[in-house]
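Input (structure):
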């Protein structure tokens, strides 16, 4: 009885509390900040558990503290214990409140979320400051009690994510060739776990993924949690699915073409989509140099074309093989100047040059990488209008006269520029910095990076970025290749 009187006297002397019909409703709310009237009781304190690794926690709750209740009198009950968390290195952060059950446990998902909010998803031990409060009921009265401050040390659950990834397979002669690197934003990989790569694949192409640590160590074929990434079933032809490092097998792409693979390594998933490759002409018009000023204009994921006055032979290579003659494509050996023919690769067949039917005349050369064929089509109009200059104008230039980004004519009627578009917005192609002759088509480059402008057409929407820009003033075709 004396203990009850002592507790009641202590609480009443500290503050005058109201019954649970008043402020207790507020104290019970897990989202309400502790009241200033909170008191401390000798012997009623919270103690932190040892460091927690959430990856090792199998249940949905994890113990973070214990409460010493030896000083509580008979008849006193504890309810609504909670802790208010702050990162130990940032006291000005917004507090997060987690409910604590009678065993000193919190929901694993809530603790994981709190760590991610303060620090991100990287699986490193994080130290947080936790102020612990409880509501104590005694003789129909509710009291807010401060159980003290503890340090909670916990490591969030997250899979291994390397700093970078590479794709290997038939397209790289597996581990003998040069792996193709995935692109990434450069942010912390646990904040942005998405990586993307584009590559050219022949029919029946197998693939796996190599993490950066394998590549750096020289043990490129290392397996394990931090090693080779693949699919569960060898030869899986799915264009999306789950990745694994547990006995990883090779995925399989059935059709030849150009592909974009996106991997999300926080949940170990992948998607593959067929896209239009970028193919560059190398030939007599460029002096057989490996520049990238002459790109084919896509019309689909497999069909592309180039229209100009042709003055000699050519081959072409995909963006992944510029400068590598083994990666170039040409014609079958010995066919010469034919209206149409079969495309073969240098590496497998030692291709000949593709030869125009005649020189000094306008043709459209169409390549179909689905059927691996090419076709020459002679233009009816052999005297198309010629222009002294071509430029880009748009929101990024303020649509101002004299501010056009001037393009270079790299072959007759084909224009090129490497340009930085500083702001999102619309743009058009126009002649001589005037509006007499201009092209556009109301397209959005973020959806499809190629199209066909029409005279006086609408604005082409282009996100801010740096691009190689290609335009043909005969066909109106254009292509934006992001840096």
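Output (sequence):
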């Amino acid at each position: 009885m004396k203990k009850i009187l002592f507790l009641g006297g202590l609480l009443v002397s500290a503050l005058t509390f109201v019954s649970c019909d008043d402020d207790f409703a507020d104290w019970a709310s897990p989202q309400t900040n502790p009241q200033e009237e909170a008191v401390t009781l000798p012997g009623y304190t919270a103690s932190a558990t040892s460091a927690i690794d959430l990856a090792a926690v199998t249940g949905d709750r994890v113990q973070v503290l214990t409460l010493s209740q030896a000083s509580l009198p008979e008849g006193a009950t504890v309810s609504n214990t909670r802790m208010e968390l702050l990162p130990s290195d940032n006291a000005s952060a917004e507090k997060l409140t987690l409910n604590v059950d009678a065993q000193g446990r919190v929901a694993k998902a809530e603790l994981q979320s709190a760590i991610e909010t303060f620090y991100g998803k990287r699986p490193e031990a994080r130290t947080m400051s936790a102020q612990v409060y409880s509501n104590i009921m005694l003789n129909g009265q509710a009291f807010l009690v401060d159980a003290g401050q503890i340090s909670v040390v916990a490591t969030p659950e997250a899979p291994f994510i390397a700093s970078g990834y590479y794709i290997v397979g038939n397209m790289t002669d597996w581990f003998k060739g040069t792996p193709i690197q995935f692109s990434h934003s450069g942010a912390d990989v646990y904040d942005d776990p998405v990586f993307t790569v584009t590559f050219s694949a022949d029919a029946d192409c197998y693939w796996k993924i190599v993490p950066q640590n394998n590549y750096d160590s020289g043990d490129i074929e290392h397996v394990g949690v931090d090693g080779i990434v693949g699919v569960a079933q060898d030869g899986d032809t799915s264009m999306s699915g789950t990745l694994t490092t547990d006995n990883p097998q090779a995925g399989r792409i059935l059709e030849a073409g150009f592909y974009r693979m996106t991997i999300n390594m926080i949940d170990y998933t992948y998607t593959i989509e067929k896209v239009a490759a970028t193919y560059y002409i190398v030939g007599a018009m460029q002096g057989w140099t490996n520049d990238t000023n002459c790109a084919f204009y896509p019309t689909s994921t497999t069909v592309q074309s180039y229209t100009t006055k042709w003055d000699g032979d050519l081959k072409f290579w995909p963006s992944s093989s510029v400068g590598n003659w083994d990666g170039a494509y040409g014609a079958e050996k010995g066919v010469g100047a034919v209206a149409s023919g079969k495309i073969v690769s240098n590496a497998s067949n030692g291709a000949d040059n593709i030869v125009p039917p005649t020189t000094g005349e306008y043709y459209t050369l169409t390549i179909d990488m689905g059927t691996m064929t090419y076709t020459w089509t002679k233009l009816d109009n052999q005297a198309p209008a010629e222009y002294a200059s071509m430029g880009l104008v748009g929101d990024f230039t303020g649509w101002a006269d004299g501010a056009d980004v001037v393009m270079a004519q790299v072959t007759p009627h084909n224009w090129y520029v490497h340009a930085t578009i500083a702001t999102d917005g619309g743009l058009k192609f126009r002649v001589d910095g005037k509006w007499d002759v201009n092209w556009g088509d109301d397209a959005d480059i973020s959806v499809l990076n190629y199209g066909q402008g029409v005279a006086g057409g609408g604005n082409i929407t282009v996100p801010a970025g740096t691009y190689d820009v290609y335009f043909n003033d005969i066909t109106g075709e254009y292509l934006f290749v992001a840096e």
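Notes: Residues 2-14 form the longest helix (13 residues). Residues 130 and 150 are 5 Å apart (CA to CA).
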